[in-house]
Amino acid sequence: MEERALRRRRLQSKMKETGIDVCVITQNVDLYYFTGSMQTGYLFVPVEGEAVFFVRRSFVRAREEADVAVEELGSMRGFGSRLAEAFPEQLRKPDGEKPVLATEYDVLPVQQFQRLEGALPGVKWVDGSMLVREIRMIKSPSEIAAIRESARVIDMAYEAAIQALKAGMPEVGLMAIVESVIRNNGHMGLMRVRGYNQEIITGMIGAGAAAAMPTYFDGPAGGEGLGAASPQSSGTRGIGEEEPILIDIGCCIGGYVIDQTRTAVIGELPDDLRQAYELSEAVLRATEARLKPGTICEELYTSALEQVQAAGLSDHFMGFGADQVKFLGHGIGLEIDELPVLARGFRYALEPGMVIAIEPKFTFPGRGVVGIENTYAITDTGFEKLTVSREGIAVVPR
């Protein structure tokens, strides 16, 4: 409860710096982060004073869960008048001065936004997405502990998958083993993605050419999936010998996600694919050496590009051709795609409390994907590796 109150105060501090009178939180994950409840409604956070959570459904449950004042939303027709009464200092400005309201433009549907506009005429709306995302970027010890627990459970699943792996078994069968282990150990059954139209299915287990199939998901490995209605992750293709098996999996316990990747093979990898995997570990080690407060996120990405270029594998790094993705890693927490991003244009300096998944991978069309991914928490002096699964290529005898 105290932690969420601190989050709201941090939001109010950022609002004051940017001239925002009220921040309207609408998205379910953001609502949970700031209130402790994921019920449907709007959280109104004034620049000064206490927040109010106006709930459509379930009001009863929101009252039990949230640590802020909870009121029934009621009709949108009279909502503006109620808000003006609740927040007179913020919403009743002198003549000619418009109150400034912020909300999450990155995730709020246009139709829903238009309802808010209709309920609150005469205000100036601005994008508050980055305010919210930058606050969520810095994790508390309790948040990192939740990610640490997810890492422990996904390691159990990884080891179970390696023990079960055999030639001919379908990719989706191997994924089912992973999902069974994590579900029986606290995984909530989904991992949330903030990006529009982005979805994730526990991760991606793909072997050989299937793993290298591109898809809409914003990552270096797509996977065949189970058809055009689910064109990513594991398919029904049987896993073969001497082909790379990419095991890119996650787990979500208490709302918090771990993201990790390992590479396996039944038999031996061809030399060039093995060397590409070794380069992925080398990139990870070089990145780890610079994981400390003050390092600029963009520079970690550009340094990795230089290392890969020197090895002659730029064309295969993080995808292939037009389907290459332009990042090395990403923040994770309540969602899989949080700030910061290790990519060009992201000039954030690393800070204690950031949690980042770093995933150097190499894609070879028609042959497969190799790589590794660990999740790290930035500390006062460097980093803590939250991922606990053993590294190296997992070799399963023929």
Structure in words:
With 398 residues, this protein is an alpha+beta fold. It folds into 2 domains: 2-136, 3-Layer(aba) Sandwich (Creatine Amidinohydrolase, Chain A, domain 1), CATH 3.40.350; 138-396, Creatinase/methionine aminopeptidase superfamily (Creatine Amidinohydrolase, Alpha-Beta Complex). It is 34% helix and 21% strand. It has 12 helices and 17 strands. A 6-stranded mixed beta sheet has the order 4-3-2-1-5-6. Strands 11-10-12-15-16 form a 5-stranded antiparallel beta sheet. A 4-stranded mixed beta sheet has the order 7-8-9-17. Strand 5 (100-103), helix 6 (110-119) and strand 6 (124-127) form a beta-alpha-beta unit. The longest helix has 24 residues, at 141-164. The model has no long low-confidence stretch (mean pLDDT 96).
How many structurally independent domains? Answer: 2
* CATH homologous superfamily label of the largest domain: Creatinase/methionine aminopeptidase superfamily
Number of helices: 12
Strand order of the largest sheet: 4-3-2-1-5-6
Terminal residue distance: 53 Å
CATH class of the largest domain: Alpha Beta
Radius of gyration: 23 Å
Return the CATH architecture of the largest domain. Answer: Alpha-Beta Complex
Structural class: alpha+beta
Overall mean pLDDT stands at: 96
List the secondary-structure elements in sequence, H or E: HEHEEHEHHEHEHHHEHEEHHEEEEEEEE
CATH fold call of the largest domain: Creatine Amidinohydrolase
State which percent range the strand residues make up: 15-25%
Unreliable spans: none
Write down the overall geometry: elongated
Count of extended strands: 17
Helix content: 25-40%
Q: Biggest sheet, open or closed, and with what strands and sense?
A: 6 strands, mixed
